[in-house]
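Loading example: each entry is read as two labelled lines plus one structure line.
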Amino acid sequence: MRRLTPYLLALPSWMWLAIFLVVPMAAMASVSLQTGNAIDGFAMTFSFSNYADAIGAYSPQLLRSLLYGGLATVAMLVIGYPVAYWIAFKAGHRKSVYLFLLLLPFFVSFVLRTISWNFLLSDNGILFGTLKDWGLLPADFHVLATTFAVVGGLTYNFLPFMILPIYVALERVDPRVVEAAQDLYATRAAAFRRVVLPLSLPGVFAGVLMTFVPATADPINAAILGGTSNTMIGNIIQTEYLTNLDYPTASALSFTLMAVLLVGIFVYARALGTENVLEAAAR
Amino acid sequence: MNPLMRGMTQPRTRRDVFRLTGLSAAGLALAACGVQGQKVAPPKADAVADYWAKQTKNGKVVFANWPEYMPEDKGPLERFKKDTGISYEYKEVIQENAEFFGKADPVLRAGQPLGYDIVVMTNGIQLQHMIELGYVVALDQSKLPNFQANAGQKYKERAYDPGNKYTIPYTSGVTGIAYNTEYVKDDITSIESLFDAKYKGRVGMMSDAQEIGNFGMIALGIDPEKSTEADWKKAGEKLKAQRDAGIVRKYYDQSYIDAVSKGDIWLTMAWSGDVFQRQLAGEPVKFIVPEEGGTIWTDNMLIPKGAANPVDALMLMDYLYQPAVAAELDEFIQFVTPVPAVQDLLREKAGTAKGAAKKALEEMVDSPLMFPTEADYAKLRSYTQLTTQQEQVFNPIFQSITQA
């Protein structure tokens, strides 16, 4: 009995995984190979051409999503790393205050936050309207309905998921290690490059994972902030599911997106040198 | 951190992979039976009578409707409660037909109740699916005395629901053009303005395939109701050219109304009542029906399969056809009421009102967009009726433009 106990304790989580992950995924895999329509029903025909058709029809949106997700991730890294660094090393005893302030906007729903960007960036709104009145911007200047707006929205919406893991990694860096580096005649830049940065890489790795994946799949920012050529793959999947009731195409696209993201992550993990990262994290 | 990365980066043992595959295969086998279609034949007359004979009045009703479709004090519903003793729950849960249908379909398919006794849906593909799939309770015609007595003839003869078998109208509205008078100084009269390079980047079009398809066809002089696949493709080309020329800023859902009143877009496809409500709020927007024509649509009340209180629901649906109740409702929502007598009632009310209220009521009574004349109706086109097969051709033509 005692030998069984750990397994019994783990049982609920396995059941959870089986019911809410494995079964739906299998059902989706099955639907992605079916043909038919919502009224007459779908039948399993093992039509792998669903995948070819879906990718053929929507590859521009798929590539665009990867591009936007990538751009937003880079932007988050550039903005987020200094913020995490500052909070970890310079914020002193107010660390938790700054972390709380960072998270504060995220108590509001994702969609509402994005809509308020729409309000803020409106062509004649409180920001650009004022600047235009002062003659600082040309009258037809606009940010909404552009690529910049969508990538900006993605960057804003997922930023904490980049900052927090990096912060956690940096927080664990013992300041004495940096002092030691400087005692050994490292310049401040060299100490950062050779000591702090490598130690924070696991955080960067986690941050990139936690932001790139949802940013690439996100349909909200493109729908609210985008224009006529900013449709992302998430919007297509949503339309196929809810408007067209084309479950096979939607499932095939979802699996394709998942496969592309997984491959991307493996390549990224290899490129970043997993060995080093693991070693650093283990310390 | 560690286990996550290890899990993703280290090769699994062969046994792990084997196990995972086995599990997935079992799942596949489970799911391979497919999604059942449920297309049903219309119920026989005695089956309908049987159904209604078994139902009893329960003293409550749950009404699912669109936002801004009921006065804030819920006047018509309060009256209903007082007159009949039936209590109500009013829920503003429907924002879009496609999305609502997408959410309701799995529930109704599984034979479970939606939790609503009355649902309001626009005539169009989704309503058609609801009826085809047997998701709608056939109405007991003998229990609709007010509807029979007071509904306008047009609202009793709707091509998509002959004989009012499953639905009766809630209200109608017009799709036309709205423009912001601060930025557009000319009087807009033609649908061609939406395709005018002068307004490059300042035009809003709707993302809904049927709405935008209709306007593409009307611009080409095609009546959507009589259109063929070749017409859809021609309309698609016209709309694609409009898009490629950079004239369209964005393909909108309901949010177009904010964009045009803020001036992000200057002119746009629009729904009549939305614009009137903004005008009342003092915003510089104007609504017109293009001389080439606009579209008229109808939002319809129906009782979904499995509704808990169908008798009460039917009573409320019919109650809204009492002219005084219909007038109270229309005075607020300002769409096209299916009860023609409302115009006289509002005219009487304007006679006794004073000041701003009097002026507002007089404007309503004279508005061709609330009370269209025969000549106005002649300019308005209906949605095209699509079969499921046609829909699979129609949607991609227009979605490839709105979602490129």
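Strands of chain A lie at 34-37, 41-44.
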